[in-house]
Write a structure and sequence with these properties.
Elements lengths: L2 E5 H8 L4 H7 L6 E6 L2 E5 L10 H11 L11 E2 L5 E4 L9 E8 L5 H16 L8 E7 L7 E7 L3 E2 L8 E2 H7 L1 H6 L8 E6 L5 E4 L3 E2 L12 E7 L2 H17 L3 E4 L1 E4 L2 E2 L6 E6 H8 L5 H10 L3 E5 L2 E6 L9 H4 L1
Parallel strand pairs: 4-15, 5-8, 5-16
Antiparallel strand pairs: 1-3, 2-3, 6-14, 6-15, 7-14, 8-11, 9-10, 11-12, 12-13, 16-17, 18-20, 19-20
Helix pairs in contact: 1-3
């Protein structure tokens, strides 16, 4: 089970008017197991099925609902824009065919926020990304990138300065000499070509699923972000993006669309879904006698939208809750 370290004082700021004891008492009701507590810090285990709990922003979102501070669905607000686009070349189709992304602007980033983002990224890689094989994320300083971008392939002689390095390396050197290259280079198979994202000035942005370019490193001075997700399946890539987008909006960023086209790729939809459930199924399964208003209130505390429609309750599911497949998951 993945583990995350949280600060009670930071959670209090994110949630609103709530005591440390209220947070501590409520965490298990989100399905979170407290592993240890030392003064202001608490380490918790969370289910891999809830990757939104990989940061304190996601946990604060859940606690706000449980404690009745903010209930109902957090609606993703993604502004339309023609300023950001990615063109996908057919050459990636047999290697890592899909890319998606989003722009996040006007956020405040400190060292603790960077740590939270890094934890989220690695937990997503390990969980739904299946150790980066199915999908992987790159988070970049938007202001260091010139759009439009191209997702294409290059040979292994291609050079750039990778993250956490001061010198230019070839793709071959990155794969054989860097830690991430040694860990994940095998995911690209034996192909002589590798996937790459380049900007309009021909600068390398990312070498997925291995490493970002050093020039786009996120720091405490970063205000605007570009997030890209690549993968072997479009749905998996968009699921991962939906978690990141939700966390970034919760962190105070405003979101903008990235237009994506070429080689069977398209712009992310990040759509909500609707699932109906019968109140009798809930009561029979749980052995309770809950009224329809009480069920709706409970669903809203779970950060879903719910309304009564005839004999059924219609729930609106946010895109990041891809762990909800049908009525029994709502029960």
């Amino acid at each position: 089970m993945p583990v995350i370290e949280l600060s009670y004082s930071r959670l209090q700021k994110l949630i609103g008017k709530v005591s440390k004891k209220q947070i501590s008492d409520s965490l298990p009701f989100l399905g979170l197991d407290i592993e240890s507590e030392v003064k202001d810090l608490v380490r918790i285990e969370y289910s891999p099925n809830r990757p939104d709990y990989s940061t304190d922003f996601g946990i604060a979102l859940g606690l706000q609902g449980l404690l009745g501070i903010k209930t109902g669905l957090l609606k993703l607000t993604v502004k339309k824009s023609k300023n950001y686009s990615i063109t996908v070349k057919p050459s990636v189709s047999k290697i890592r065919p899909f890319v998606t992304g989003i722009i996040a602007k006007n956020g405040k980033i400190d060292d603790k926020t960077i740590k939270q983002f890094m934890t989220m990224q690695e937990d997503l890689h390990f969980g739904i990304g299946r150790k980066r094989k199915k999908s992987s994320i790159g988070i970049h300083d938007l202001d260091k990138i010139s759009f439009p971008l191209t997702y294409t392939t290059v040979d292994k002689n291609h050079k750039f300065i990778p993250l956490n390095s001061e010198k230019e390396l070839s793709i071959s050197e990155i794969i054989t000499e860097t830690e991430t290259g040694k860990d994940y280079g095998h995911l690209l198979g034996q192909s002589s070509q590798v996937p790459i994202i380049i900007d309009s000035n021909k600068k390398t942005v990312s070498f997925p699923p291995i490493i970002n370019a050093g020039i786009t490193t996120v720091t405490t001075k970063t205000k605007n972000l570009f997030v890209e997700v690549t993968g072997i399946n479009k749905a998996d890539a968009e699921d991962m993006l939906s978690v990141v987008a939700t966390i970034l909006q919760s962190a105070g960023f405003t979101l903008e669309i990235v237009q994506i086209s070429g080689a069977k790729n398209s712009s992310p939809k990040l759509e909500e879904r609707k699932i109906s459930v019968d109140s009798s199924l809930i009561n029979q399964t749980l052995g309770l006698d809950l009224s329809t208003p009480k069920i709706i209130s409970s669903l809203r505390k779970s950060r879903l939208n719910a309304i009564s429609k005839g004999k059924k309750i219609e729930c609106t599911i946010p895109p990041y809750r891809f762990d909800i497949f049908g009525p029994m998951d709502l029960v």
